Amino acid sequence: MIKRISSLIPKSWISGIRYLLTPAKKPNIPPERKAYIFLAADYGNLGDIALTFAQKQLLLKHFPNHYPVEVPSSISLSELKGYIQSVSKDDIVTIIAGGNMGDVWSWFERYRQLIVSKLRKNSIYQFPQTTTYTNTTLGRNLLACAKYIYYGSSIKLMAREKMSYDFMQSNFDCSSYLAPDIVMTLKYWKKRERNGILLCLRDDREQSLNNEEQSEIKRIITDINMDVSVIDTKIDDTFKYDIRYVQLEQFINRVSSAKVIVTDRLHGMIFAYITGTPAIVLPNSNRKIEMCYEWISNCGFIRFFPSFSVTAFSDALNAALTDKVDVDKDILDSNYCRFQTIFNTIFKNE
After folding, report:
1. Distance CA 39, CA 73 (A)
2. In this predicted structure, what is the pLDDT of residue 13?
3. pTM more than 0.90
4. What is the DSSP string of 83-132?
């Protein structure tokens, strides 16, 4: 009976009760005005580490008088409570960008809702997200809680593609904006000698390519007389928190030295974009790549295919390897200024 009753209580409520009962562990941070990055990446996903790094750089640019504070995603509830209680009225509160808004990564969503519920009077910026609330009991419950918590709060939601923006506009009674994936604001455009092919494919819940299609891609690439390296933005086995940004830069340098990258990872595509590396991009399961591609489709060196075709893929790969690809720096500079203007407008709408 008790188990039955407890199953009916939304887990977001349980998180709130646990928060009230948990003692706060105060963090050791400077007393000056701060810009917080809640749920910052502290695990071996280079895409999420890049999101944290780019978010930090943008805050330094737009809020130079605020000291940036990364609040790691895997801290205890006691530590999170300490950070929340350390926030003053003059501080800027931001929540990590990415694709964890919804029930696919429900742990992030519950912490997000908890943070917003406790800091309703602060300026809160949810950096660009993809929303995925599924039509399940969990998805519906988390969406209902989000609607309740965001109502009347000062949170500003950012969506990194149109579908999520439309969802935010329809479901949440708060400010929402359309903005690019934050990693697109980084610049690593260098002319350098390029060699070999990089293959970066998913093997998780967001994978869209089936095993046969992945095998065909690998066969086509292997048949080409060129060095092929299999890489991944997930580096759980080698990840070290203290050198996470060094590991990120090493990965970016590796991408920038390739002749072409083949990927179905969103940040595989974006790493190609910020380094001027030709890329053949294939879809994932939730269309976030397809929709985010619209921000950078004008660059000329990245080709997105909404579905896999042996002929189309082979032709695109041969073209990328044989054609001289000139990165139009004017287009990249124009995109960079456009992206910065979008964020500047959002930050000024206080």
Report:
1. 4
2. 65
3. yes
4. HHHH--TT-EEEE--EEEEESTTHHHHHHHHHHHHH-TTSEEEEEEEEEE
